[in-house]
Write a structure and sequence with these properties.
alpha/beta; Rossmann fold; 2 domains; three-stranded antiparallel sheet; 17 helices; elongated
Length: 402
């Protein structure tokens, strides 16, 4: 039996018309914070990510991909292409605070479920739309995909070896950032509604959010008009701040300022570098980054990774190993921070999920229900929210509406 919500969004109900990753990331965050999430899925098929496998969660038919972003949600099946399905969505909205969707621009309007159609009927409704390119602009009709956005948004031009090809980030950051920005927008809109009683639409474009998190590299371009080069694992504004080979592997060395560089040099027999004009300050080291790399590489190869970490940490110099995921999840700090949660699943198995990283002292994230089976809560939601009886629900199922 699902535990009652305890988070700061307790009492908030979300109608979740999102699928794949960006939208489900947004709504899972809301669910972790206590909101009730009613996930609308296609009858028989469900969210596309249910089929994004292997791998499956052990001893279940659930893809690891789907399980990763769909906890704290109730799954109901509704065919919104049918008038009866559209009517069900409208009835559910009478008791919902938020509608989240990531359909193509204009797609939901075909079913009478667009923002313009719903806002007059439900003036308190917060309507969050997450698309590849937003609701306006010349690219608005285009579909958005993570790799496409990473390419168009510039991050691929910044990622990879200087002499190699552009590289995307190893996880779908364009999707994830769009989802998190969507969640931030929803929280702001809730605050506004609490003050005024007025809902609003939140227009999240994946390309917009991608441009927003170009951060220092985007600002480097705006300041100079020059395209930043690919630097591999080096930092565009700090040196040395990169990976180095050690006697038995690799390490990240992060020397964030001049006093730290001086401390490094004095501790490891490199005092002579302090008298070298090329190393005199961080701007000089950045301008001479190849000399910094060439000079420090043999030094870093003189010790093992573990030896470096012990000695550098004692000197409060930034460093760390380059971990595999096995090493990440075995890391004592990651474990101490509770970054893996085990949840009982409807299959009878226990599933592991990655925890919410937001640590709230009074209202911590809530892990009350595991990722649902397809349509697991259809009868429950229809009965509780719509007052439907078993015969009516059975008739809808027989006609393929749910």
């Amino acid at each position: 039996m699902e535990k009652p919500p305890t988070g700061p969004l307790k009492g908030i109900r979300v109608l979740d018309l999102t699928r794949v990753l960006a939208g489900p990331t947004c709504t899972q965050m809301l669910g972790d914070l206590g909101a009730e999430i009613i996930k609308i899925e296609r009858p028989e098929a469900g969210d596309d990510t249910r089929g994004f496998a292997p791998p499956f969660v052990p001893n279940t038919k659930e893809s690891a991909y789907f399980v990763g972003v769909n906890r704290n949600k109730k799954s109901i099946t509704v065919d919104i292409a049918k008038p009866e399905g559209q009517a069900i969505i409208q009835r559910l909205l009478e008791s919902c605070d938020i509608l989240a969707e990531n359909f193509k621009v204009g797609a939901l309007a075909k079913y009478g479920l667009g923002w313009e159609q719903l806002s007059a009927k439900y003036p308190r409704l917060i309507y969050c739309s997450i698309t590849g390119f937003g609701q306006t602009g010349p690219y608005a009709p285009r579909p958005g995909y993570d790799a496409l956005i990473q390419a168009m948004g510039g991050v691929m031009s910044l990622t990879g070896d200087p002499d190699g090809s552009p590289q995307k980030v190893g996880v779908p950051v364009a999707d994830l950032f769009a989802g998190l920005y969507g969640c931030i927008g929803i929280l702001a809109a809730l605050q506004h509604r609490n003050a005024t009683g007025q809902g609003q639409q939140i227009d999240i474009g994946m390309l917009d959010t991608h441009v927003a998190w170009l951060a220092n590299q985007g600002m480097n371009y705006l300041a100079t008009g020059e395209n930043p080069p690919r630097l591999g694992n080096q930092h565009p504004n700090i040196a040395p701040y990169q990976e180095f080979p050690t006697k038995d592997g690799y390490i990240i060395l992060a020397v964030g300022n001049d006093p730290t560089f001086e401390r490094f040099c004095r501790a490891f027999g490199q005092e002579h570098l302090l008298a070298d004009e090329r190393f005199a300050s961080n701007p000089k080291r950045v301008a001479n980054r190849q000399a910094v790399t060439d000079t420090l590489t043999p030094v870093m190869r003189s010790r093992t990774t573990a030896e470096w970490i012990d000695q550098l940490e004692a000197l409060k110099i930034g460093c760390g190993p380059i971990n595999t995921l096995e090493q990440v999840f075995a890391d004592p700090h990651v474990q101490a921070r509770g970054m893996v949660v085990e949840m009982p699943h409807a299959s009878g198995e226990t599933v592991k999920v990655i925890a919410n990283p937001v640590k709230l002292s009074a209202t911590p994230p809530d892990y009350r229900s595991p990722p649902p089976l397809l349509g697991q809560h259809t009868a429950e939601v229809f009965s509780e929210l719509l007052g439907m009886g078993e015969a009516e629900i059975a008739d809808l199922k027989a006609r393929g509406i749910v």
